[in-house]
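Thread amino acids onto this structure.
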């Protein structure tokens, strides 16, 4: 068996609004959407610079509920971008909530995280240095000793 691709698939309360938000913040473009006669979006795909993000509205009849409805999410989506500061700034202006301020991290990224208006956690970072795994572990151990 070979895994050929993997797509994040998010359930949101208002897919049309999420498409607009992700377009404004990440520059995502809509590939297509499948809409029921009621207006509920059963499936939408966005292109984020060559990566696909799939979205749908809630389908409680199938147990498909949004992070907003659940009040939490156990998942963090990490985006590696060219300018994390600019992305986070756009996200906050568009209605996201800052969770972890941007900072230079021990693992060689400048990163931080926010929660989008649809309840999902996004960690956004850009590379500031290349680090070998052994050095990253050494730095991680040092961070744990501080805490």
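Threaded sequence (147 positions):
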């Amino acid at each position: 068996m070979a895994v050929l691709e993997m797509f994040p698939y998010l359930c949101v309360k208002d897919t049309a609004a999420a498409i607009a938000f992700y377009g404004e913040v990440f520059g995502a473009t809509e590939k297509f959407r499948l809409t029921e006669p009621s207006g509920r979006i059963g499936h939408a795909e966005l292109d984020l610079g060559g990566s696909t993000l799939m979205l749908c509205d809630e389908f409680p009849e199938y147990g498909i509920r949004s992070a907003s409805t659940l009040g939490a999410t156990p998942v963090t989506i990490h985006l590696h971008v060219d300018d994390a500061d600019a992305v986070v700034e756009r996200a906050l202006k568009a209605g996201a909530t800052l969770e972890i301020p941007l900072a230079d991290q021990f693992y060689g990224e400048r990163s931080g995280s926010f929660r989008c208006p649809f309840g999902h956690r996004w960690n956004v970072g850009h590379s500031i240095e290349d680090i070998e795994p052994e050095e990253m572990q050494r730095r991680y151990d040092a961070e744990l000793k501080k805490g």
